[in-house]
Each structure stands twice: as structure tokens, then as C-alpha cells.
Amino acid sequence: MAKETKAGFRGHFDHLSAGELAFPFCEECGRWHWYPMPLCPHCRSSRLSWRPVSGTGEIWSWTVVRHAFDASHRDKLPYVVALVCFEEAPGIRLVANVEAASPDELRIGMPVELVPPVPGEPAQHAAFRPVRPTQLA
Amino acid sequence: MRNDIAIVGVGQTRPVRRADRDIRALVVEAIQLALDDAGIDASEVDGIISDGVIMPASVPRDYVAAQFGIARRFDGGMSYGGAGSACAPMLARMALEAGQADVVVYYFGVDWGSRESGPYGFHNIYPAKMAFEKPVGFSGQPSYFALWARRYMHEYGLTEDDLAAIATAQRESAIRNGHAQLQKPLSVADYHASRMISDPLRAADCCLITDGAAAFVMTRMDRARDCRRRPVRVLGCGFGSEALSGDDSFTQKPKQLTIPGAREACGRALGEAGIGLDAVDFSEIYDCFTISCLMQVEDLGFCAKGEAGPFIRERGIGVDGKLPVNTHGGLLAHSYLLGAEHVVEAVRQLRGEAGDAQVKDAEVGLVTGLSVPDYGVLVLGR
Question: Distance between CA atoms of A4 and A67, rounded to whole angstroms?
Fold first, then answer.
């Protein structure tokens, strides 16, 4: 996480450092929103908290980026970016990298799980990987 | 029917990837071309409009005022990019009807062809996108629309050939236009060979990158009748949007595959014009990508959601098709001035000046501007 990260965004990264995925939750109306805002966009309450979810979601859609839109990602091409949604937090879609063996294995609706942060290193951004069949209960 | 203002002059610089002049010089040329086209001297202009976001940061209205010696009585801008261009007549009409201006100039231009960050730096103004999206490599507009395209394919069975039908038809129109940035034919096989940019979108699905500018001049009908060319009437103009910020608009829209502003803006514009979609002879639809053009065909009401793929192929969107769309080649093949060139093209069609790309007996044209989540619709008539 960059030092200059805005205060209103910090909760997400603080939770990630602890290995948790958290989103803004409204204590007033019980709904989630994303991105962070000073007021709940559903009911305008300021009683907001960062509430963790399990970290398992599913792919809403995905793309393999093959063009360097920004020089910072030139040496990472090609890479996968997905919109991940969560049953526990309806309405939220998180933009995240998915670490797949091959893009060919990706499917819309595929379950994905949060890649745990490396111990001792500050968490960067949430990344996901497909949930392997053996891991499915 | 409200038809008391008209577009009386249009101008556009030759679209190129990299211009040999800066953006200010391009805007000045476009405005001068539009004034000459109208036969109106700059001394008569008393109102200046641009889009509300991009021009104020690159070629502000005061610069135009200083260059053309205009002491403004009216000054305004709304939305950004395409919706700002399509809705310029809405602002102009307010000023002209209220007697707050007599001649209003609108302009828009970009130098994204010669800027290092190209079009991709534009979204840096959104803090959540900068914090959560750019660091994971989600910063190019093709990637935003790629997510929509893949989901659309999943939900509605859209095929690559459906997208190819749009790209190939518009390329043919660009060639017929003769002034477009792309003049090389595009076959369906060429489409499939086109470089993948952000799956499933190929280079042929993406708009061009252009250095250029466009402008148009608006005035009341009484003055319009004395201008050099036949006035093109503003029959209706509508705007619609969603309660979403620029941070949210590509990922958090409640219905990702629907653009609610399109239906609302179109209803408002057609309502003012007192006509239905069946009266529209051609449309200049904001085609930043093949997929977004296709989705708008549905959201504007030409066909039901999920049906645009086969609908477009059956009707044909070429100049001689049953549903002519982007008769100059659009943003995919003519130029990428974010839809300002769509207004210019619609005016030329309605004057009968479109040459080989002329839609026969064109009397009513629809122009749209998509600036997610904002949407503008302009209905013009001969």
C-alpha cells in the first residue's frame, strides 16, 4: 500500500495486512458499498464500519490484459484482471488479479479465494486464485 | 415540437494519430472552420461552450475567447467528452431562448495521440481508481469494456462475429467517407487476425487514438436562415445518468450490461422532437468499442436487451443498410474526438454533403454521447 493512500481507503489495506478482506458496511441500513465513501450511498448514514468477508468469491467477468496501458505493468504482460463478487457482500465487485495456471481455466462464476499475504510483508492489493476441487468441501 | 435553434456551421481538423501542431492550434482551426462554414464572423459570437471536464484542463474557454476576441455573455460546459458534445445544444438553447446569447460556439478536441499517457491517463482524476484499480493493472478503457463484453457473451450468447459485423461495416463507411483516419478495408478474416488487446476485445474492437478538434456554431432560427448553409434544426436534446461517480461507473453499476441514461436521454430527446425511433434515418452512436455501440443499440430502444447482435447483422448498419450507424466510420475508423465528430457528420448528412457515404433522403439524425454513467442524445432534422 502506498503511503499516500487516502485515509478513507486505509481500512481495506489494514485488514489485508492481517490476511482479511474487508469492505465498508453500513451499521444503519445493513448494506455494503464499494468504493469507500464518507456516507452510505444507500441511506446517507455515517455509521460505517469495515466488515470482513470470508475471502471466497466468484468471478463475475475477467480479461487477459495484453497491452501496456501503463508502463508500470509492461513487464507483467499478459496478466489477468477479474471482477470478483461475494455472496456475503451483495452489490460489491472487486477489481483484482487472478493467479491462474492458464487463463484457459478461468470461467465466469468460478469460485476464487484470497491469496494469503506473505508473512512479514505489508499487504499490497487483494489477489485471488481458483479454489481447487480438492479444497471444495 | 421545439425547433427554434439550429446548427449553422461545423468544422473539424483532419484526423491524424499525431498532429504537427498542439491542441490549442487544432481547436482554433476547428472553430475557424465552423465560423467560415456558417458565414459568421467571430465578432458576432457571444457564447462559448465546451465539455465540462476535458477542455477546461487543456483548452479552456477563456483561451478561445481571447484568441477570437469574444467578450462572453454566456459560458458553460456539462458532463465530459461525448455526452458534453451531444448535449451542447441543450445549453446553447437555454442561453439563446433566454436572450443571454445570440451566437454560441461549441468546441472539443484531444491530443491523446501525441500525449505519452494517451487516453489512458484521463482516469487518473478518480482517487478510488488510482488506489484500487491502477495498481493491479486495470487502467485501460479496453479492459473496462472487455469485462462487459465477456459477461455479455456469457449472458446473451454474443459471438466475435457479431462484433466483427460492427467493425467491418463501419470500416466500409470510413472508406466511403474518404476523410477518415483509417482507409484500409477490414474483412471478417482481418477482424479475427486483429491483435488481442484485452480479451475478448481486439484492436479492431477499439476506437482510434487521434489528435484533432471539432466545433459547431448554434443560433436561433431567425438568424440561422441568413447563414451560408442550410440550417440543421435541433429537434430535441436529452441527458440521462445514474447515481454513480467516475470511480464506480465501470465496475459498480448495479446493472453492468445496461446503460439506463441512454433510454432516459433518448426518451427525452425524442419526446421534445415529437417523433419516435422509427422516424430516425441514421444514427451516430458513441462507438468507443464495438461492444458499447452494440449495447447502446439496445438501450436506445432499437431492439430488446440481448438481441443487438443478430439485430445489427440482419438490418445492416452500413450507409445503405436498414439501420445506418456511424456513417463516417465512427470512433472505430473515422477519428476519436469522443463524439464531437458525430455531431459534425450528422449535420453534413442532413445537408446532403456526405458524398459517397450519403444516406439517401436523410431527414432526421440521432447523435449519442456515452460518458459513463452520463449519456446525451441529440436529434437533428433537415
Answer: 27
pLDDT tens column, B234-270: 999 999 999 999 999 999 999 999 999 999 999 999 9
Report the CATH number that the domain containing residue A64 is assigned in CATH.
2.40.50.840
d(CA B331, CA B286): 7
Interface test with B, best of A39, A79, A81, A107 (most B CBs within 10 A): A81
Nearest CA in chain B to A73: B137
Global ipTM: 0.93
CA B181, B106, B261, B110 dihedral sign is: positive
pLDDT over threshold 80, residue B3: no
Domain that holds residue A100: 3-136
Tell me the C-alpha distance between B280 and B175, whole Å.
23
* Test mutation, B123, B150, B153, B255, chain A, max A CBs within 10 A: B150
- Domains in chain A: how many in total? 1
Task: Note whether B12 contacts A: Cβ–Cβ < 8 A.
Answer: no
> Residue B288 in contact with residue B334, Cβ under 8 Å?
no
Confidence (pTM): 0.96
